[in-house]
Design a protein that fits this description.
This protein has about 725 residues and is an alpha/beta fold. Among the domains are: about 180 residues, OB fold (Dihydrolipoamide Acetyltransferase, E2P) (Beta Barrel), CATH 2.40.50.140; about 160 residues, P-loop containing nucleotide triphosphate hydrolases (Rossmann fold), CATH 3.40.50; about 160 residues, 3-Layer(aba) Sandwich (Rossmann fold). It contains 24 helices and 21 strands. The strands form four sheets. Strands 11-12-10-13-14-9-15 form a seven-stranded parallel β-sheet, sandwiched between helices. Strands 16-21-20-17-19-18 form a six-stranded parallel β-sheet, with helices on both faces. The longest helix has about 30 residues. The two termini are about 25 Å apart.
Length: about 725
Amino acid sequence: MLSPLKPVLGKAAELLAKQLEIHTVGDLVRHYPRRYVDRGKLTDIAGLELGEHATIIALVEKTTMRDMRNRRGTMLQVVLRDEKGATLDATFFNGHKVKHFIHPGVRAVFSGKVGVFNKKLQLTHPQFDPLDEADEIRPFISVYPATGKITSQEIARCVRQVLDVRDGGGRVEVTDPLPGSLRQREGLAELGRALRRIHVPESEADYHAARNRLVWDEALGVQLALALRRQAAVSKPAAACPPRRGALLDAFDARLPFTLTPGQQEVGAEIAADLALRHPMNRLVQGDVGAGKTVIALRAMLQAVDAGRQAAMLAPTETLAAQHARSLRTMLGPLAQAGELGAAEHATSITLLTGSLGAKAKRKALLDAQSGEAGIVVGTHALIQDRVGFAELGLVVVDEQHRFGVEQRDALRGRGGDLAPHMLVMTATPIPRTVAMTVYGDLQISSLRELPEGRSPISTTVVPLAEKPSWFASIWRRVREEVAAGHQAYVVCPRVGDVDPQDLIDTEDPDIGADSDDGGARRPPMAVLEVAPKLVEGPLEGLRIAILHGKMPPDEKDAVMRAFERHELDVLVATTVIEVGVDVPNATAMVILDADRFGLSQLHQLRGRVGRGSAPGVCLLVTDMPAATAARERLDAVAGTTDGFVLAQLDLELRREGDVLGSMQSGRRSGLRLLSLLKHAEIIAKAQVYAGDIVEQDPGLVRHPGLFALVGETVGDEERAAYLDKV
């Protein structure tokens, strides 16, 4: 279906390409209707009732343009008449924008809420889709995503023209990529019939069957892409790193002041077995906040070092990279002091490599990595740069996987020379099953659901300033109580507060505020640079307070974090730069201002910064959003559970799935139009099994050219080529 449209549609093809990026026959027939109008369920004008949402077919009988009375702009007043002669008024604001489409003689579908004006029923600014003669005889009218330059009616006409050419034996051919045995087993329609019925259904059963078949196409296309990626990842041999008795890992285990949880032991055994093989490990470890992923990663790196290899740990920010380097050195103690006085037997060394290092420090870090003197190299994306070399890289650990693209992961895979390094990726954001199958399906997944002993409970409370404004003062009294008890506190703000009013979000933070209910009318989010001085001069006067955000120079950020860790500070006012990796057991209080501007998973991650020691933690979610709003419901959900897996599923249900599925596309034009992670979990699971079997039997999809093309349609030709180049 890669045939160009112009030979079939002429000038209309140019408009489709310019307005909707529809260039081929395949693009057009995959531009599915966004809804259908069932002629059997239409309402007569005479039967309309106030307040109902109605859909009618009517003729535009009269139009009148006039200026609005109370504000600038024009209003188009329209008289509509249905087939039975009943009339209804409709009003369109900014009438000049629709007058070219709504004029006497036009017949269209009008949808909207029935209101009243001057004691007469009317539709106010209804949706409308003009009809042509072909629509008049069909039981269902297809309504397409359109633009101001090309209407749904025009798109429908182009689709029918292409379908008619295909059915008439013309130049448009549809080859069904799905194996006949799969279609028969799952009861799926043939592709040509499905494409016709999704556009021109004769019954509800028609478009349901068509949609089911086309969902299968998308699910199988994604899973084939992931199966090809899994295959490509293991096609290059890896260095076997079997456990070595009496060496560094055993010495570290003997130093541990605690016992690993059963979950940590199980996941650790899976990783150890993977590392011992000669094909590269590709495993993702997901665990709730504080589940002990860092210990698992360190033990894996020590196993690689014991085998004579190096390990690299990639963190998304310099703050987190520096924190990891300090934490690893602390956990290893003398075992991380190779070449120093007092170093333990079998000791290694840890090198930090980030983009902001001075020239001298960076040269030494590069030399340590290149020479192999550094057994473990911790860094940011600077590790991916071409000039960073390793002596014998055996393992790559990627922390906070969701902040890195597939391309970055692949870049590190190529650092192992002739042998591919093993890959361990970690995320502290639990992943719902369907997301894992669809976005991380190229990885084996291990889950940590239990917390280590010694983790203290965290109580979470929503502070509703809309109903209880006096509670704002009690927040700071509670912070003072924690400090008086010898503990420390975080105060988190959504933005930095730089002089540039357009620069609202910390550059190191993920997107925030996208799911808030402010409608654009709220005050700006609270800012670190505005809140901190008010606390110093007001309710927290006399306490040792500092700020931390992603726009600070790296050495300043590092100095602040070190001071907080040494308890030289009482309160840290920060952005979400502290969201992950920050481990200060003495911090017991977390105040999140404008908490409704953060996502569920983000709030859960922030909350996990407290309760990491022997004292219980407290988290206060401060909001001025009123009760019975979606924002308050989200905050109540966070306050109601500390189970990150439960919150991750709820987060998926609340978020736009395109944000999740978009990571499959890497910014390219999406081929996923119908697939839903929530609605199609069973199909996704089945498609994963089918895809694995197909790729195992036909590694390059040479015998399945239709499926090869389907991968390109679904995840993009460049992505498909990247997979297959490695096979």
